[in-house]
Amino acid sequence: DIVMTQSPDSLAVSLGERATINCKSSQSVLYSSNNKNYLAWYQQKPGQPPKLLIYWASTRESGVPDRFSGSGSGTDFTLTISSLQAEDVAVYYCQQYYSTPLLTFGPGTKVDIK
Amino acid sequence: EVQLVESGGGLVQPGRSLRLSCAASGFTFDDYAMHWVRQAPGKGLEWVSGISWNSGSIGYADSVKGRFTISRDNAKNSLYLQMNSLRAEDTALYYCAKAKLTTVTTFFDYWGQGTLVTVSS
């Protein structure tokens, strides 16, 4: 199974500042035949289901603000919130969908306002 | 508008069974794989099981393999999860999630609100 890890476990960022979350997979999730990274990011606010933010490691889902961006390849990935807003307080999860059919999530990173 | 509505959760004793349902609307149900993802109280997300559009490809997490069975009825736009031999560690909010892709190996663009399963004597 592919194991996903995230760092940090939590972080507090001032409004308008940058927040950076890291995700690492135990093996590469880059599929060589199409050069795509099988990695997604979700945002989960308290009492709500997760919301898809990013897929293919860097493609923003429709309607997601452009302050959210994803980067990375192979085993190391980053979700960046360029200018943190109050409504971005949430837990963020990465998920690999490379391994058929065993899908795995990272443990989550909690983002708060400093 | 895509809607996923789970039902069937509740309090059940260890070793007993429960069947979850997910009613889907607002999209062509038989075009997409569907999945169950759970979240224990205060914990992270755990993928449970997924099924392809035609039920030809099915997968389970190791933690539920042999105890849970996923199925779907495309005529009824419904997804199911039969849960047998339930354990305390199966206590969680169970989400129904729609695949963004047509394959089982996918990510999820829509989620239901979840149905709570509590396994306790």
A few lines on this structure:
The complex is a heterodimer of chains A (114) and B (121). By secondary structure, chain A is an all-beta fold.
If you had to describe this structure to a student in words, what would you say it looks like?
- Chain A is mainly beta and 114 residues long.
- Helix content of chain A is 0%, strand content 51%.
- Chain A has strands at residues 4-7, 10-13, 19-25, 30-31, 36-37, 39-44, 51-55, 59-60, 68-73, 76-81, 90-96, 104-105, 109-113.
- In chain A, the strands form 3 sheets. In chain A, strands 2, 6, 7, 8, 11, 12 and 13 form a 7-stranded mixed sheet that branches. In chain A, strands 1-3-10-9 form a 4-stranded antiparallel sheet, with no helix packed on it. Chain A has a two-stranded antiparallel sheet with strand order 4-5.
- The termini of chain A are far apart.
- In chain B, 0% of the residues lie in helices and 50% in strands.
- With 121 residues, chain B is an all-beta fold.
- Chain B has strands spanning 3-7, 10-12, 18-25, 34-39, 45-51, 58-60, 68-73, 78-83, 92-99, 108-111, 115-119.
- Chain A binds chain B through residues 1, 38, 40, 42, 44, 49-52, 55, 61, 91, 93, 95, 97-108, and chain B through 35, 44-47, 50, 57-59, 61-62, 95, 100, 104-109, 111-114.
